[in-house]
Specification:
The complex is a heterodimer. Chain A is an all-alpha fold. Chain A has 6 helices and no strands. Classes of the chains: A mainly alpha, B mainly alpha. The interface between A and B is large, with 63 and 58 residues.
């Protein structure tokens, strides 16, 4: 392979060409573009997810306002719906489901640390028993 | 044997001009130690740390939400249909934001600017709703120092409102910069970073809306 062709190939923007020369970098691209091995959603799928989020919000409001449930069952339903909505936005809209696992780890360390820390704080103040 | 144990030291690679375009010299993204964008990693680290900020504010509110003695409390104040409408607006702004990111990845710049502007407008509408809500509460007698409940409520929702306002400034600045072609580096990634911040603001509101407005005090 002449030096000229090497320069041409390595300057190529085609990932397939690049992959022939550098499998490691091609792997890093795979991580970058879809670390979890899924294709990113289409615009129609994004609209579908937004509709699901809207329906879940409507259920939350109806459960509270219509008085279908009260006390612990109501709180359990509301928290569950909140967690589902959270996961949908983080997973699909923020692309965490399709991105590198390192981003997932970095973000959820913050989430878990916050929930754990403030859960302990509230327990210290007898929040749950009050 | 000595051949197999000797490590060849690779010559230092020359960084070509325009390296800061978010791609390496092979056209592959981010020739970093992790193979990932440092900007994106920094953004996720920032958002992870923001969880601690809002976690503190939310748990403080949860602790003080019943501390209003005979003053106004959540049950007398909340207008759930109104807050639901503003929540829905913010939720839909997440959809328009992701459409902007999607358009940016397809290099459809005009459509990207359009979706970013719509997102900023929806954010502005949410913020206007929050200002209206605060005004109503204040007129009903709920000042910032009226009770522990009032202080923790205004601090939590006010901090969130400031985040939305910062997000709107970021969105409109990005629209202006895209129009003047002033965005350095990978445009799609820049739009995605602003998008990550905006979606985070949305997920914080998902939590606030449930815990503050819907869960009975």
């Amino acid at each position: 392979m002449s030096s000229d062709s090497t320069i041409t190939d390595t300057d190529s923007k085609d990932p397939n060409v690049a992959a022939q020369h550098s499998p490691d970098l091609a792997a890093s691209q795979a991580v970058h573009e879809g670390g979890h091995g899924h294709a990113e959603p289409t615009d129609k799928q994004y609209i579908g997810i937004a509709l699901i989020l809207a329906v879940l919000t409507a259920i939350e409001i109806a459960a509270t306002e219509a008085g279908w449930f009260s006390g612990a069952p109501l709180v359990t339903i509301l928290i569950s719906l909140m967690v589902v909505k959270f996961l949908l936005v983080v997973g699909f809209f923020m692309h965490l489901r399709f991105d590198s696992r390192l981003f997932t780890l970095v973000f959820y360390i913050g989430v878990v640390f916050a929930v754990g820390l403030y859960g302990v704080m509230l327990a210290t103040f007898h929040f749950w028993t009050g | 044997m000595s051949d197999t144990t000797t490590h060849d030291t690779a010559p230092a690679e020359e960084i070509p001009a325009g390296y800061d375009d978010g791609q390496d010299h092979l056209g592959l993204p981010h020739h970093t130690a992790t193979g990932l964008s440092n900007t994106k990693l920094a953004m996720w680290l920032f958002l992870g740390s923001e969880c601690l900020l809002f976690g503190g504010l939310i748990s403080t509110y949860m602790l003080y939400r019943n501390r209003q003695a005979d003053q106004l409390g959540p049950d007398q104040l909340w207008d759930i249909p109104f807050t639901s409408a503003t929540s829905f607006i913010l939720l839909m702004s997440s959809l328009t934001m992701v459409m902007a990111v999607s358009a940016a990845k397809r290099k459809e710049e005009q459509r990207t600017r359009l979706w970013l502007t719509v997102t900023a407008m929806l954010g502005g509408l949410f913020l206007a709703g929050q200002v209206y809500e605060f005004t109503v509460f204040y007129r009903e007698g709920l000042g910032y120092t009226t009770s522990l409940f009032a202080s923790s409520f205004y601090t939590l929702t006010g901090f969130h409102g400031v985040h939305v306002a910062v997000g709107i400034v970021m969105l409109l600045s990005l629209v202006a910069m895209l129009k003047k072609n002033k965005v350095l580096g990978d445009k799609a990634e820049t739009v995605e970073m602003v998008g990550l911040y905006w979606h985070f603001v949305d997920i914080v509101w998902i939590i606030i809306f449930t815990l503050v407005y819907l869960v009975p005090a």
